[in-house]
């Protein structure tokens, strides 16, 4: 591999764009691979993922295979691209062993956690939900497991206490862009370090249920969950069976029954948790716009003593 490596880039969402841009500035991108176009909006207009749109804008070779396993034509396309190495960043598909073997230097993956912690689809979100003060980025050699390959580079990132998944994703995207350039520049000299399986934790894909407020938990846990699900599915509570989206949650002071409204004032709604209380700044009923919590409470007749519906785990 004389000189800079030729890179095939696999990614789909906007999160991956800074990584693609950083690679393009330093190395030759011989192929960009993204997920297929999907229907978006009320009109269900077929829309390319952000990485595919940027590749088309730059005139880079683009592939959007619907499947990878058993796709001989796509494997041939990757081989013919002349890529020395492939990089994945939030691509969103499992890579079969036959594909991993195509580039001479295999696949590198940028993963937004300090592996082996938070393997899986939602490491940013679960790190926040679980109240981590530090996370980071790992550049790993991809194997057939779920984020189980050896670590090539790793760097920690302190998590600001006010960050939601939106701000943390921005910070980790910038960190991943810098680390992957370092990894590619030093590719032959990198030493793979196996992960310690005993320390592995998991970060499964979020569901709508993960956004429901667990009033019986501590105020800090409720706020951490709000931070983690800020991008999707957002924070949801129920009052008399009516679904409400809650915004601007922060830990406050107060004691009461979990889910009990303690105060309604200019700071919003103060609601008791299993330990402490949370302040809520905005409330959005279904099919309506978000309102200041005090305005919503006055219109809905919410007074101290009103209780939100308890959360119950789904039946097995």
UniProtKB/TrEMBL annotation:
Residues 206-300 form the Formyl transferase C-terminal domain. Residues 6-184 form the Formyl transferase N-terminal domain. It catalyses: L-methionyl-tRNA(fMet) + (6R)-10-formyltetrahydrofolate = N-formyl-L-methionyl-tRNA(fMet) + (6S)-5,6,7,8-tetrahydrofolate + H(+). It holds the Pfam family Formyl_trans_N. GO terms for molecular function: methionyl-tRNA formyltransferase activity. InterPro entries: Fmt (IPR005794), Formyl_trans_C (IPR005793), Formyl_transf_N (IPR002376), Formyl_transf_N_sf (IPR036477), Formyl_transferase-like_C_sf (IPR011034), GART_AS (IPR001555), Met-tRNA-FMT_C (IPR044135), Met-tRNA-FMT_N (IPR041711). (6S)-5,6,7,8-tetrahydrofolate binds at residues 113-116. The keyword tRNA processing does not apply. The keyword Transferase applies. Its EC number is 2.1.2.9. One of its GO terms (cellular component) is cytosol. Gene3D superfamilies: 3.40.50.12230. Keywords: Protein biosynthesis, Transferase. HAMAP family: Formyl_trans (MF_00182). NCBIfam families: fmt (TIGR00460). Belongs to the Fmt family. Attaches a formyl group to the free amino group of methionyl-tRNA(fMet). The formyl group appears to play a dual role in the initiator identity of N-formylmethionyl-tRNA by promoting its recognition by IF2 and preventing the misappropriation of this tRNA by the elongation apparatus. This is Methionyl-tRNA formyltransferase. It comes from Deinococcus phoenicis.
């Amino acid at each position: 591999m004389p000189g800079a490596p030729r890179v095939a880039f696999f990614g789909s969402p906007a999160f991956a764009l800074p990584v693609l841009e950083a690679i393009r500035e330093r190395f030759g991108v011989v192929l960009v691979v993204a997920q297929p176009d999907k229907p978006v909006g009320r009109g269900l207009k077929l829309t390319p993922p952000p990485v595919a749109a940027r590749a088309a804008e730059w005139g880079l070779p683009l592939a959007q295979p619907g499947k990878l396993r058993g796709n001989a034509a796509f494997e041939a396309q990757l081989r013919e691209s002349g890529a020395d190495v492939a990089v994945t960043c939030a691509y969103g598909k499992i890579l079969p062993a036959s594909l991993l073997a195509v580039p001479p230097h295999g696949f590198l993956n940028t993963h937004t956690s300090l592996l082996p912690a938070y393997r899986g689809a939602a490491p940013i979100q679960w790190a926040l939900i679980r109240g981590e003060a530090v996370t980071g980025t790992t550049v790993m050699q991809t194997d057939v497991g779920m984020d189980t390959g050896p670590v090539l580079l790793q760097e920690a990132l302190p998590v600001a206490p006010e960050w939601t998944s939106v701000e943390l994703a921005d910070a980790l995207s910038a960190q991943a862009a810098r680390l992957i350039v370092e990894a590619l520049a030093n590719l032959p000299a990198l030493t793979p370090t196996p992960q310690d399986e005993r320390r592995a934790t998991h970060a499964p894909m979020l569901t709508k249920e993960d956004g429901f407020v667990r009033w019986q938990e501590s105020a800090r846990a409720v706020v951490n969950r709000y931070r983690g699900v800020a991008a999707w599915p957002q924070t949801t509570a129920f009052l008399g069976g009516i679904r409400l989206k809650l915004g601007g949650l922060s830990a406050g002071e107060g004691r009461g029954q979990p889910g009990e409204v303690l105060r309604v004032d200019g700071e919003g709604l103060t609601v008791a948790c299993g330990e402490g209380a949370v302040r809520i700044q905005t409330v959005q009923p279904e099919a309506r716009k978000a309102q200041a919590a005090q305005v919503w409470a006055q219109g809905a007749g919410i007074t101290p003593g009103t209780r939100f519906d308890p959360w119950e785990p789904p039946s097995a």
